[in-house]
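We emphasize that the prediction below concerns an isolated chain of 407 residues; any contacts that depend on oligomerization or on bound cofactors are therefore not represented. The input was used exactly as deposited, without trimming of termini.
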Amino acid sequence: MSQGGAVITSSLMPTYARLPVRFTRGEGAWLWDTDGKKYLDGISGIGVCSLGHAHPTIAKVIREQSGHLLHTSNLYEIPYQSQLADALTRLLMSQSDPDPIPPRVFFCNSGTEANEAAIKIARMYAHHKGIGSPKIVVTEGAFHGRTLGALSATGNPNLQIGFEPLLPGFLRVPFNDSAAITAIADNPDIVAVLVEPIQGEGGVIIPDDQYLQATRDICDRHDWLMILDEVQTGMGRTGRWFAWQHSSGAVPDVMMLAKALGNGIPIGACLARGRAVDVLTPGTHGSTFGGNPLACRVALTVVDIMEKEGIVEHAERMGHELHSALASALLSKSVISEVRGSGLMIGIKFNRSCGELVKRALERGLLINVTVDDVLRLLPPLIIEEREARRIVQTIAELVDEFFTER
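Result of the prediction step, given as a token string:
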């Protein structure tokens, strides 16, 4: 491939089918490539850069902290780590009953690592209960990551081919089907249910309003852990700090965050409360880089900006406007079957493959994503403004008309 006359070559492993573009700088919801072409970022690094690119306050914090201290390891106390843990547990408990034992947080470097920590919590929880072959209920269509444990929990067989044997101990049921969980609840080895509040990689699948609450009730009846993967949905993406807050009674025992937590600086977090709070003890888990001073100070800054500037409320408002505008512009088209979403997590369901739209949108200066072959996914920065949302709608509508008219 080439760009601007230069051939792009690399010694990288070919694990990505990369698009032929190189970005050199960003500002807000926009990116510029090596030729100076401007792009509206409708995917924000797959839901990572929620506060946009080159946010001046975050950039200042990175510069300052890099001149002070980057890393010491978890052999020592890290003040920013403690402050961030306090901030996240405060947000976790903001819509739940007071708990006599405060929640606790483990910091790592990614969503996959946070999910691995959650799986280990479930297994150690089983060990404390005397269960030798623990089972975790997971769902079809789920995506929890690509390390071996997270991959085993993932509900996409295509991603698992060639990596067998997978980690045992997972029971799979349909997503958005609490009755299917109840149907297997007599299994004495079940210790936890692990779900995404909204399936992102699975096609922006939004469950019924009662689903999470029903799952919470089942877990309580059977003394299981309710584990929520909020890696993509968390940190304001759906118009709430966490997607479970749309079902206020469905407070998780374990919750995982990453992506937007660091706005581009790698950081993941696994939060535990209630019966899960003291499961992991010294020596049972760890991370060399997890929770280093730089990552935690940046994440603290992200939380602070979001609270002071009302970013979550803005995401809810803009998500409603963008969803309504897309529905108005697209649902009359025969190739579109549904526009669905929550906040600024939106999926446009086609009745046929739509993967080629990604390249065509790139040519028009818009970054989008297609998942499960027929769902165009939008995860724009939470700071997106109305004029930028209108441009997204107009560009997608024009692309759909042109592309499918040709066929």
